[in-house]
Amino acid sequence: MTASQNGHVEVVDKLLQHGATVDLKEKDGWSSLYAASQNGHVEVEGHVEVVDKLLQHGATVDLQDKGDNTALTHACRGNDFTTVSILLSAGAHPNVCNKAGQTPLLLAVRKNNMAIVRELVNARVDVDHMYQNGLSSLMLCCVEGNSEMANLLLEAQADTDLQQSEYWIHSSDVCLQGRSSGYSNRSHGTRSKFSD
């Protein structure tokens, strides 16, 4: 676990060669693949190579921790495009949902990472999945005024008629008008309700 987290490729390779269990979990449910996948955002040298090495040795790509997060969830939360791409190529499920109701797409949109959102869209992610408070990825783009990302989701056939019951927002009105129609994410607490 520690070797994976710190990007020590040669050490990880040696441990695997000597029979280390690739999917062994810590008490919190974390595996070596999680540890390597969540460290890309702090630029740990070697983490991408470790992810690749673990997958080559049969790491379960969609293994979940106690919060139902997967390596893909961690990589999206960490803004790590390269690891996201590797995991998707290895068959990671793009629509996995953790116990907080977050999907990789929702996390990528929240992080404003266009490249990862595009990668997930190309992997046929469910663009209409709604977060536990009734917020979809398209709605989140509209609330935050991200027209470029909203356009990408609309091109991927995101539903403009989804209703956000808690905040009474009609996403198509917001997007097509190019403004928030008086909606304030501060006054309605959107950021605090969408914890990343």
TrEMBL record:
PROSITE patterns: ANK_REP_REGION, ANK_REPEAT
Coiled-coil regions, chain positions: none
GO molecular function term, any single one: kinase activity
Name of one Pfam family that matches: Ank
Signal peptide span: none
GO cellular component: nucleus
The keyword DNA-binding appears for this protein: no
Single Gene Ontology BP annotation: positive regulation of transcription by RNA polymerase II
Keywords in alphabetical order: ANK repeat, Kinase, Repeat, Transferase
Start and stop residues of the ANK repeats: 1-27, 28-66, 100-132, 133-165
UniProt cross-references to SUPFAM superfamilies, sorted A to Z: Ankyrin repeat
InterPro entries associated with the record: Ankyrin-SOCS_Box, Ankyrin_rpt, Ankyrin_rpt-contain_sf
Gene3D superfamilies, per database record: Ankyrin repeat-containing domain
PANTHER family (alphabetical): ADA2A-CONTAINING COMPLEX COMPONENT 3, ISOFORM D, ANKYRIN REPEAT PROTEIN
Protein name per Swiss-Prot or TrEMBL: Kinase D-interacting substrate of 220 kDa
High-level lineage: Eukaryota, Metazoa, Porifera, Demospongiae, Heteroscleromorpha
